[in-house]
Amino acid sequence: MAERFDNLEEHLEKFVENIRQLGIIVSDFQPSSQTGLNQKLNFMISGLQDIEKCRQQLHEINVPLEAFEYIDQGRNPQLYTKECLERALAKNEQKFKSLLISELGKVFPEEMAKYKAIHGDDLHS
Question: Is the distance from CB of 15 to CB of 48 less than 8 angstroms?
């Protein structure tokens, strides 16, 4: 899977560089640079075709819209992943704690009654 991403990244980098060079040619266009311009336009077309081939290999990948929102806000999309994992961890810890207390209450009812008397509502927070 990583090889497909590496391939796409390589094609995107080449495409961006080609666009940069095309911009330089166009910004200072001279009739003598028409051949170079045509060549860059053809490279751009073949680059788009290469990117399309890569896209077809990656069609099964879904990216959450929230990750794009992070990018639009200028934030690192890896923060989205980190925050999702932190939320999942907190949720799992709460479920585990609740289940543990419930099961301990069945096995050690007297001890858990004392524990609950000491800790009160802190059990479910």
Answer: yes
Q: Are 26 and 37 in contact (CB under 8 A)?
A: yes
d(CA 69, CA 89): 23
**CA–CA dist 120, 85 (Å, integer):** 29
Q: Decide if 71 contacts 63 (C-beta within 8 A).
A: no
Q: Render pLDDT for 94-123 as a digit per residue (tens, 0 to 9).
A: 999 999 999 999 999 999 999 888 887 565
Integer Cα distance of 87 and 65 in angstroms: 17
Which class for 34: exposed (0-12), middle (13-18), buried (19 or more C-beta within 10 A)? exposed
Q: Is the dihedral of CA 48, 50, 51, 55 positive or negative?
A: positive
Please report, for residues 92, 101, 108, 120, 123, the alpha-carbon distance to residue 116 in angstroms, rounded to integers and kept in the order given.
21, 9, 12, 5, 7
